[in-house]
Every structure is written in C-alpha cells, then in structure tokens.
Amino acid sequence: MAVERTHKITLIPGDGIGPEVSAATVKILEVAGAATGVGFEWHRFAAGAEAFEQTREYIPKALYESIEQNRVALKGPVTTPIGGGFSSINVTLRKKFDLFANFRPVKNLPGLATKYPDIDLVIVRENTEDLYSGLEHEIVPGVVQSLKIITDKGSTRIAQFAFDYARKHGRKKIHAIHKANIMKLSDGLFLRCCRRVGEGFPEVEYQEHIVDNTCMQLVLNPYQYDILLTENLYGDILSDLCSAFVGGLGLVPGANLGHECSIFEAVHGSAPDIAGKDMANPTALVQSAVLMLHHINERATAELVQTAIEQVYREGKTLTRDVGGQSGTKEFADAVLEAMASPAAV
C-alpha cells in the first residue's frame, strides 16, 4: 500500500538489550505501516553513558530538540547507575517535558499460562513529583535527607487523567493508593485532590486503599481492582508487582504522557547480562509502540501489530526464554511479521 502519511518519531534505542528490542520493534512497525499506508521517519539518538562518550552530555541537546519538534518518542531501556553516577535518564526526560502521567496497562496475553488469568488492570501514576523529584542532600556525614513533594496541581491533574480515561474507556472503578495514615499532609493532599475530581464522575466507583494493604490485596485478589491511581513511588513499585501477574516486565508496556510531548517505553531494565545474545523479549517495547500508534491516531496499524503479537503468543511456538520458549529476539520478531501477513491479521 502506498504511504499516505509519515510520522516523525524520536527513537532512543537505549543500551544493553535496548538496541536489539528497538530494532525488532522498528522492523515490525515499518512492515505494519507499509500494510496500512503509514510511514515512519526515525530520528535516532543515544542517551546515558553512550551519549556521554559521543557528546560529553548524558542527554544531548539535539535529543531534547528532537523530542520538542516531533512531540513523540519511542525509548528502549537505558541503564541507570545504582547509588551513584549520572541521574536517571527516565526521570530527567519526564521532568524536562512535564510528562506527568505514567500509564501502564497490565493485561494477559492469550495462550500464556499464569497463576492469574484474565488480568486487566491499569496503573495511572503521577510522574513528576514525590520522592522522585530527586531533592536530597547529606545533612551531616551519615545522614541524608530526601524531600517528598506533593502538590495540588500535580495531584489534581493526574486524578483528572485517570477519571477521564475511565469515562472514555468504560472503566468502572478507581482506587487511589496512599499512606495518608502516616503522611497526613502529603498523601492527605493527594487524596483530597482525588476526591474532589471524583465528584465529577458519579459513574466511576471511587475507593481508597493504603499502599501496603494494596500489595497484599493484589496478591490475594487482583480482580477487585480496575484502575490504580497512585503517587510516583507507589506506582513504580505496584506496576512491577502487577507485571508478575501476566508474565513479567518483558511483556508490559508503558507510556509517559504530557500535554505537549509523550515518550513510550518498555518498563524493564537494560539486562546487560544478555545483551547482544539475541535472547531479549521485545514484547514490552512492541506493545509500548502499539500505545504510541493509538496516541498518534493510527488505530489500524496498532490493531494489526497487537493482533499479530497475540497470535504468536496464542500459538506458543516462537516465544522467548523468559516466557518458556526457546526462540531469540529476531525469531520472535519474524514470527510477528509472519502473523501480520496472515489472512487473519489483515
């Protein structure tokens, strides 16, 4: 099919397994786009340690400019040093572009057996405040202070995002997750904002759960939840927990959404131990790209890719090792391409 429209996308392949899963994802999107009249112009940039070696900047100025111009980016995993080194690339980009909404749907893939079938959860996480503001300093040797920042503005807009999403997509229930029994001012403010916004959505059931109880309740019965509305840190922890219900972080997509720009990324790490070995599962990044396609109003392309992914999992013949298969990254991607070409996918 002739290309009817072309989208300029900033691509950050990442490091570790990032370049492998990014290459697989780009190939899948380009074939899907060719079948649906959609073209992609990829603007590739390194970030993190690799970028520093090339430009002496962890996030090159040209990368910032590309995201500002294109307004959409697809990002592979970038290693974040633990306990030192440069600041998190993820957090820096989210704060730079005010990507206040972290959106992580958690849903089973067909044919993949798990202890929790038929999971369909959405985690909506505030993405710019809380302890992730990174405001910490050493008061005296051996004593470090970290500041938790919660604002009316930040809490209100993430609650508005969650309730708007629930209304648009027919979701029926939202739980605000908190620790207001201890942090009465900060988490108390978050809850007041959620309650205020919720009053305008009478069709959506609103409840509140303390975060530690939520962890227990999720393991006992995740089906009681629909949308989890959280502050930054709680959402980061709970989204990883919930990914285990459906097979792990290698499967779960993520989106960082703002009013001006959006960055779509897999939520897993860079897995340097398997980098370059053709072992990584690209599903999380491919499904993140599906979220991106919906975001740029390319629904037909998104559905073609998603249907093909589900067909590959349903057949179960070409899965990667992390989900019980024996196939590599490239073989899995080729299976998705083959599925897209089948009559059932078209």
TrEMBL record:
<keyword id="KW-0560">Oxidoreductase</keyword>
<dbReference type="Pfam" id="PF00180">
    <property type="entry name" value="Iso_dh"/>
</dbReference>
<dbReference type="GO" id="GO:0004449">
    <property type="term" value="F:isocitrate dehydrogenase (NAD+) activity"/>
</dbReference>
<protein>
    <submittedName>
        <fullName>Isocitrate dehydrogenase (NAD+)</fullName>
    </submittedName>
</protein>
<dbReference type="InterPro" id="IPR024084">
    <property type="entry name" value="IsoPropMal-DH-like_dom"/>
</dbReference>
<dbReference type="GO" id="GO:0006102">
    <property type="term" value="P:isocitrate metabolic process"/>
</dbReference>
<dbReference type="InterPro" id="IPR019818">
    <property type="entry name" value="IsoCit/isopropylmalate_DH_CS"/>
</dbReference>
<feature type="domain" description="Isopropylmalate dehydrogenase-like">
    <location>
        <begin position="8"/>
        <end position="336"/>
    </location>
</feature>
<comment type="similarity">
    <text>Belongs to the isocitrate and isopropylmalate dehydrogenases family.</text>
</comment>
<dbReference type="GO" id="GO:0000287">
    <property type="term" value="F:magnesium ion binding"/>
</dbReference>
<dbReference type="GO" id="GO:0006099">
    <property type="term" value="P:tricarboxylic acid cycle"/>
</dbReference>
<dbReference type="GO" id="GO:0051287">
    <property type="term" value="F:NAD binding"/>
</dbReference>
